[in-house]
Design a protein that fits this description.
Length: 134
């Protein structure tokens, strides 16, 4: 006796996840690098160069002076380290832009979160969004 095969093919496809904005992920990773460890890495490298070449560090603004005997790579490392100090007001430095960048990223991600909540239409989350929007 032949028995019919009972294989059922499903035509339903899993719901596609929305695509992530990779540029924002890269920017967030760059920012988190500087918040978590970037500063310490560059200060450590600059201190090593300072000790090797007996350079002078200004006690007022913590910058390390360079001299002509340094290689281009060493000057770049010292320059980056000098930018990563909270200095007395003499204009913006790179360090002054790290936290505002983090706040910008957080605010931009909130827009994506609200948009996805509205698309999913989960009532309990919609109430929370309405509460926050007030």
């Amino acid at each position: 006796m032949d028995q019919p095969s009972s294989t059922v093919t499903s035509t339903a496809q899993p719901a596609a996840k929305p695509k992530r904005l990779l540029s924002l992920d890269a920017l967030r990773g760059f920012d988190m690098f500087w918040i978590v460890s970037g500063e310490g890495i560059f200060h450590g490298l600059a201190n090593g160069i300072k000790e090797d070449h007996t350079l002078v560090q200004n006690p007022y603004d913590w910058t390390i002076a360079t001299n002509p005997g340094l290689s281009l790579f060493e000057r770049i490392l010292i320059g980056i380290s000098n930018q990563l100090h909270h200095s007395p007001w003499n204009g913006f430095t790179f360090y002054d832009l790290i936290f505002p960048l983090f706040i910008f990223i957080s605010g931009y991600l909130c827009l994506f979160l609200i948009r996805s909540i509205l698309r999913i239409k989960r009532p309990e989350m919609l109430q929370q969004v309405r509460f926050i929007m007030r």
